[in-house]
Design goal:
10 helices; alpha+beta; six-stranded mixed β-sheet
């Protein structure tokens, strides 16, 4: 039900309250009404869609935001008390939300507004991401981004993105550099040509654990930060250098 949880900010009111309008026409579900309402800003986050991820470049959607009514695996059971405006808004879609297959199958007995595939990892300071489906494998990393109030908030990936949560930009950049080295990205693209690029990317790659004291890892991290600062515009020489550095680690 993207058309419920994905919203546009229509007006900035206070640091605590945002005015939003749900993106009713987005998603496969038809018949979702378009409603404008106020919600607590603490439940509103920048949204990163699959189309916003390219090699070394993760760009959150410029218009859309996402409502996240939880900080763990299930919807906040006290949402009506802790965030009454957000609860009031989501309650208008109660019938549509109760009919979700993910709620019935994976979150039986949980609040009707619970989001699936959400947990503490969703709010990690940095995330290394790749698209579920694509012509070729590419990774990027993202930290925080501002919403209309100017508040910097953690970026929330949509359900078509897989990610590794990390605590520091240095480690996130290292992982993105490792995954984008041609010897790695080409290998992943080859074995995944008939499959979606899911969690198996992290499961089956023998990625050396980040060590800030490791010379090669540090150079990979610094190079990836430099490329990412140019919105992912990497040269052939830089990709060759990444291959050379990753080769030293394997």
């Amino acid at each position: 039900r993207n058309g419920i949880f994905w919203v546009y900010e229509t007006e900035y009111r206070t640091e605590e309250i945002a005015s939003i309008k749900n993106a009713a026409t987005i998603g496969k579900t038809k018949g979702i009404p378009e409603i404008t309402a106020n919600i607590e800003s603490k439940n509103l986050f920048p949204l990163l869609r699959g189309q916003g991820v390219k090699p070394f470049n993760a760009t959150p959607d410029s218009d859309l935001r996402i409502i996240v009514p939880q900080r763990g695996m299930h919807g906040d059971p006290d949402l009506a008390i802790n965030s009454p405006l957000t609860f009031k808004f989501l309650n208008k879609f109660k019938e549509q939300l109760q009919n979700r297959s993910s709620l019935k199958r994976f979150q039986k007995g949980q609040p009707f507004y619970s989001l699936w595939s959400t947990g503490e990892y969703t709010f990690a300071p940095f995330k290394v991401l790749w698209r579920e489906i694509g012509k070729s494998f590419a990774a990027a990393y993202v930290g925080g981004s501002s919403i209309c109030s100017g508040t910097e908030k953690t970026v929330i990936p949509d359900h078509k993105l897989y990610f590794i949560p990390v605590e520091t930009e240095e480690e996130a950049a290292y992982l993105a550099g490792f995954l984008n080295a041609p010897m790695i990205s080409n290998a992943v693209s080859a074995y995944a040509s008939q499959l979606s690029l899911g969690v198996s990317v992290a499961d089956y790659l023998n990625i050396p654990k980040f060590d800030a004291e490791n010379r090669y890892m540090k150079i990979i991290s610094e190079l990836a930060i430099e490329i990412s600062s140019r919105t992912g515009d990497a040269s052939d020489a830089e990709f060759y250098r990444l291959d050379e550095l990753v080769g030293k680690l394997l």
